[in-house]
Amino acid sequence: MSTQSTIYLDYASTTPVDPRVASKMMEFLTPDGEFGNPASRSHRFGWKADEAVEEARSHVANLVNCDPREIVWTSGATEADNLAIKGVARFYKSKGNHIITSKIEHKAVLDPCRQLEREGFEVTYLDPDQNGVINPSDVKAAIKDTTVLISIMHINNELGSVNDISKIGEIARKNGSFFHVDAAQSTGKTEIDLEKMPIDLMSFSAHKTYGPKGIGALYVRRKPRVRLEALIHGGGHERGMRSGTLATHQIVGMGEAFRLANEEMKQDNVKISKFHEKFLNKVKEIDHVYLNGDIENKVPNILNVSFNFVEGESLIMGLKDIAVSSGSACTSASLEPSYVLRALGRKDELAHSSIRFSFGRFTNDDDVENTLDILGNVVHRLRELSPLWEMHLDGIDLDTVEWKMH
Amino acid sequence: MAYSKKVVDKFENTLNNPEAFKVGRFDPKETNVGTGMVGAPACGDVMKLQIKCEPKGNTHVIKDVKFKTYGCGSAIASSSELVEMLIGKTLEEAKAIKNIEIVEALELPPIKIHCSVLAEDSIKQAIEDYETKQ
């Protein structure tokens, strides 16, 4: 192994802040910088901060081709999801009480939906296909007269599979339902054009796109107008949709990160696609490896793979010099496999043995080479340790074994 | 992952020196071999433990042990820890081993106590299998 330090392949979880973004943020903190409150109208400290906030808003709007006035700052994509879902459902509850979402949404969408169920709303959770894609015709079939909101993610965070949000948006609009999209994984990875796409609300995160943590935004369409009930009150900032003093340095960071994403998306994607291809080809050489997600219809920065006969957490422990995520959230005694992989209909043992590799702007050739070397080695060793692998080599069909469950 | 250094070390040592840590298998048909297998793939862990014994006085002594484990890091460390405890013990002594000894030796977090229970069950089953063959 040629490197001593840990290789970071967990960009779908968070990205480092791009140094260019960090240095821009630094200009908005200290006494010699623009530290003013953007809401202060009476002096230049406030005006300067406000100017920076509005410039950042334009950068975010430019990346997704919308009007800057349609961008509302939030503390992150989780708050944006909450504001969109609870805000619209509560505002329009006299119109209807039915919501459609999917089983593979992020918890930031699922948990607000659960909360709305407690408030008397009815929620339909759609199944994905076996590759983790929501079929637009399933959305259409689930629509009722009372469907007030549809919330479907753009890119799945565990699989990288991409939903046809334009198509789903058309279905929603035809029915007069609002359509929200969680796009936390999309910015800087794939083109978004809100002028063309029939989408009413879209959530963004800064820290998945080389910006800082603690800042995100919600796109709220002006034409046709979408209204929502605020979650946080206290001063009426952001046109009443989200009160609280704006975090200038965070916002400037998000703006700069999205400006860079707009400029560098193409070159980032070329590089990452190469890594993806190389990684996939090499991993496929290992026996009994399964790709989770839709190879034809996914972003190249996320690669979710199951290594049969090896348990995911032990694989992650074996890969101690590589930072990756496991699909198996092995934090409970019941060893719950990922709900996303489960929703694909994957056998539990394959869900248990899945690993998500995600590449980013600062990944290099050595990272990929070294990871592939270590990975092949560790999978081999863990299989030597695995009674399941031994049984498989002996020609035993594991599905026919009567296991002594605990 | 709030594992103790002991779990991490045991896991890594076992992974890196499988033979020294008794990873492997005996022919389960041999009469002096007892095999125990517990757990299920769907639950995320399966342990297979084999003991090779010989008579000594009016009891039997464990001369050698082999194991294989599919599971999380602490499941692998727990089996490996148990295996170390077994060699040279009489069957009576081996039966008396309690999961708490593994918990203490590895400083397992509460959420992983399940792994030590599985290890305890694997030796009980291996002894049972051995005894029915005698």
UniProtKB/TrEMBL annotation, chain B:
Originating species: SAR86 cluster bacterium
UniProt superkingdom: Bacteria
GO BP terms, alphabetized: iron-sulfur cluster assembly
UniProt domain NIF system FeS cluster assembly NifU N-terminal: residue ranges: 2-134
Pfam families the record matches: NifU_N
Molecular function in Gene Ontology: iron ion binding; iron-sulfur cluster binding
UniProt protein name: Iron-binding protein
Segments crossing the lipid bilayer: none
